[in-house]
Design goal:
Layout (H helix, E strand, L loop, with lengths): L11 E6 L8 E6 L7 E10 L2 H7 L16 E8 L11 E4 L2 E3 L5 H4 L11 E2 L18 E5 L4 E2 L6 H4 L5 H11 L7 E5 L5 H11 L2 E6 L5 H7 L3 E4 L3 H6 L4 E6 L7 H5 L2 E9 L12 H4 L4 E4 L5 H14 L5 E4 L4 H9 L6 E5 L4
Parallel strand pairs: 10-11, 10-13, 11-12, 13-14, 14-15, 16-17
Antiparallel strand pairs: 1-2, 3-4, 3-8, 3-17, 4-5, 5-9, 6-7
Length: 355
C-alpha cells in the first residue's frame, strides 16, 4: 500500500486547546508527527465531547499536560497511508477512541485488552507517547495514528453519530457484553446522559429487559423511545422499595458519589453493579451489601480494539448511532457548561470543518 500523493503529510494542524487548567479552550496549532511506516493520516470529520474531556481539562483526575487538546471520540477519513499499512486505504472511514498505542507485548495487550496495558496505554490526549511527546486529541483537523489503533466505521453508520461510539458506545457495550445482557436478563442503566442513552440502545438491541434509573422523570419519554421498558426516578424513595432485588445487572454511568448500599439492594442474588462513570470523589459502602446475596461490585473501562470494532459492527447492524447535537468549534466552551448542567440530549459533536 503506497502513500497518497494527493494528501501530503501535515506537520501542524489547527486545534482547540485548553492552555491551562480551568482555562477556556482556544484555537491554536499543534504538531503532528510525519506519517510513519504503519501510520495513517486521518482527516477528522467529527469529534464527540465526552464528560471525561471536562474532567481532564479541569484537572479533575490529576495534573494535566497543557496545552491540552481533548477529544477521544473521533470519526474521519484516511487521507494518507504509510508504506507498510495493510488495514486501510485512502478514503476509508475510520475512528479513533481513547488510546492510540500500548506496549503490544503484555498479557493484556496480547489478549486484546489494550486499554489495560501493563505499561499503560497511551491516551489519545493528555498523555506522552513513546518519544516523550504529548498527544493531542480530536478537537483538531487531522490525526496521525498507527493503523492498529484505528477501527473501521461501517458504511451503515453516519460519521457524525458514529463519533461518540468510540467512547460512549464501547464504554457501555463492553460491560453489557461481558455480563451477558440479553434475553431473560433484567438490566438497569443508571443515568440517562451521553453514556446512558447508548446503554439503553445497546441493552435493548441485545434483547434485555431495560430499566432506566434517572434522578427525575423528566427524560422518561426519551428513555422509552430509546428502547427502555421501564423508567424510574431515583429521587423517589419508593423506587428503591419497589425495585428491591430486581436486576441481574446495573450499569452506572454517574460521575458522582452514590449511596452504594441502596443501589446494591436493587440487585438479585448474584447480580452485578458495574461502574463506568468515574466520580472525582471517593465512594464508600457497607460490605454486608455485597456479602448478602453474593453480589458483585465491578468496574469497566472502555474496551480493546477488537471489541471496539465488534461494537461498531453491532451498532451498524442494529442502526444504532448516538443522539447528537452538532456544534461549531467556537461553541465548545458553551457546550462544556451545558454538559455540566445536563443540558444536552445526548452528546455534543464538533463539526471539525469549523476548526
Amino acid at each position: 500500500m503506497t502513500t497518497s500523493s494527493t494528501a501530503p503529510s501535515v506537520s501542524s494542524v489547527a486545534a482547540y486547546a485548553a492552555p491551562a487548567a480551568n482555562a477556556p479552550l482556544e484555537k491554536i496549532s499543534v504538531p503532528r508527527r510525519p506519517v510513519g511506516e504503519h501510520d495513517v493520516l486521518i482527516e477528522i470529520k467529527y469529534a464527540g465531547i465526552c464528560h471525561s474531556d471536562i474532567h481532564q481539562v479541569r484537572d479533575g483526575w490529576g495534573e494535566g499536560i497543557y496545552p491540552m487538546v481533548p477529544g477521544h471520540e473521533i470519526a474521519g477519513v484516511v487521507t494518507e497511508t504509510g508504506p507498510g499499512v495493510s488495514k486501510y486505504a485512502v478514503g476509508d472511514r475510520v475512528g479513533v477512541g481513547c488510546f492510540v498505542d500500548s506496549c503490544r507485548e503484555c498479557e493484556a495487550c496480547l489478549a486484546g485488552q489494550e486499554q489495560h496495558c501493563a505499561k499503560g496505554m497511551t491516551g489519545t490526549y493528555n498523555a506522552l507517547d513513546k518519544n516523550g511527546e504529548p498527544t493531542y486529541g480530536g478537537y483538531s483537523t487531522h490525526l496521525v495514528v498507527d493503523e492498529n489503533y484505528a477501527v473501521r466505521i461501517p458504511d451503515g453508520l453516519s460519521l457524525d453519530v458514529a463519533a461518540p461510539l468510540l467512547c460512549a458506545g464501547i464504554t457501555l457495550y463492553s460491560p453489557l457484553n461481558h455480563w451477558k445482557a440479553g434475553p431473560g436478563k433484567k438490566v438497569a442503566i443508571l443515568g440517562l446522559g451521553g453514556l446512558g442513552h447508548m446503554g439503553v440502545k445497546i441493552a435493548h438491541a441485545l434483547g434485555a429487559e431495560v430499566t432506566v434509573l434517572s434522578q427525575t422523570l423528566s427524560k422518561k419519554e426519551d428513555g422509552l423511545k430509546l428502547g427502555a421498558d421501564h423508567f424510574y426516578a431515583t429521587s423517589d424513595p419508593k423506587t428503591f422499595e419497589e425495585l428491591a432485588g430486581s436486576f441481574d445487572l446495573i450499569v452506572s454511568t454517574v460521575s458522582a458519589p452514590l449511596d452504594m448500599d441502596a443501589y446494591l439492594a436493587l440487585l438479585k442474588v448474584g447480580g452485578a453493579f458495574v461502574n463506568v462513570g468515574a466520580p472525582e470523589e471517593p465512594n464508600s459502602l457497607n460490605m454486608f451489601s455485597l456479602i448478602g446475596g453474593n453480589k458483585t461490585l465491578a468496574g469497566s473501562m472502555i474496551g480493546g480494539i477488537a471489541e471496539t470494532q465488534e461494537m461498531l459492527d453491532f451498532c451498524a447492524r442494529h442502526g444504532l448511532g448516538a443522539e447528537i447535537e452538532l456544534i461549531a468549534a467556537d461553541r465548545i466552551n458553551e457546550a462544556y457548561e451545558r454538559v455540566l448542567a445536563s443540558d444536552v440530549r445526548y452528546r455534543f459533536v464538533i463539526d471539525a470543518a469549523t476548526i
